Amino acid sequence: MKIFQQLLTLREHRRGFHIITDEIEDALPQIDEIDVGICQVFIQHTSASLTINENADPTVRVDFEMFFNKTVKENDRDYEHDYEGADDMPAHLKSALLGSSVTIPIRNGRLALGTWQGIYLCEHRNRGGQRHLVITAWGA
Predict the structure, then answer these.
(1) pTM of the predicted model over 0.90
(2) Does residue 125 sit in helix, strand or coil?
(3) What family is reported (predicted)?
(4) What residue ranges define each of the domains in the chain, with the CATH number in brackets?
């Protein structure tokens, strides 16, 4: 059994959905030593999230942002938590809906993503800053 772990700091991204698959693969090149295994990517934040979805057509990411903005509206007077601005509580809710980690099988030294799949950083804040990920891979 081999186990590898790497911390990755992502540069600040604008609000929206961003493909970060290449950055994850570059951060943990030891994946190529694993024939069969698992890779978990965890984001250490409560106002950004991770998901896996379409990696080819950028309009999918635009539509994701539109959907989440319509579903979880800003400036809702019912929110009590608004210390950091109108996008703060909605960012926490969006993050809770999508989740803080993704798990991908490793096959023959590569992430076994489907042809049209990519890993997204879902940035829910207008100014989220750098984001920190913990990438862990294990297998044989």
Answers:
(1) yes
(2) coil
(3) Belongs to the UPF0047 family.
(4) 2-139 (2.60.120.460)
